Prior knowledge:
Blueprint: H1 10-21, E1 28-29, H2 30-39, H3 46-58, E2 63-66, E3 72-75, H4 82-94, H5 100-108, H6 113-125, H7 133-143, E4 154-161, H8 165-172, E5 177-182, E6 185-192, H9 196-205, E7 209-213, H10 215-230
Antiparallel strand pairs: 1-3, 2-3, 4-6, 4-7, 5-6
Amino acid sequence: MAKQSNQKAKLLYLQKFLMEETDAAHGITIAELVEKLAAVGIAAERKSLYDDVEVLRGMGLDIETVRERANSYKLVSRVLKPQDVVKAGKALKETGTAGANGIIEALCSLLSKYDAEAVKAELAAAKPKRADKTTKAAAAEAQQAEPVNTEAAEAVELKCAAELKDAVMAYLGASAKIVKEKGSNVTIGGQTVCDEAFYMQLIKWGSGVKLMEPAAHRKEFVKYCKKIISQYK
């Protein structure tokens, strides 16, 4: 019987399940991993998963085995700790950073689902500090960067949430034009220099803005984000 084409993705899915479903207080059994893999179309034998866990350990993942009637496994150390995400989330909200919720969501994805829920609950319960005039001005400046008008500018398309429409239009300046509006999303075309400053602005906007075109810079942006994340591994 031929192996399924997605067998090569098994290790990636195992890492994903360990990151999402386990932490120092919660484990997952081999039987549960078999079920989760089956749900994404990957058939796995229990014996092979023991070997796969060892491979992940060899790659540097801190996986602990809890020996009981049905052994379980848990990822006990991570790139970020919950308290780090709480501190970062509070700082983002207090400074009025555009796209703060999207950045917090991305940081929570590096935690287990249990820690992520606890972090979001703590941030939701935290009382925001009153922003002074300086803070408000900084937030407005971050949301409306000066338009770019140089020979190095390229045509871009940005898909954004309706609440960020004005910020994106201001960033692209006179070149900005609405390409399409659908529901709560707006696609805006314009010209800008696709450099590191532009990528940083995309990060500030978070999940509220997505670079649609040009495709080449989409790939560059992904590499840029991975490079930043790799510094915290």
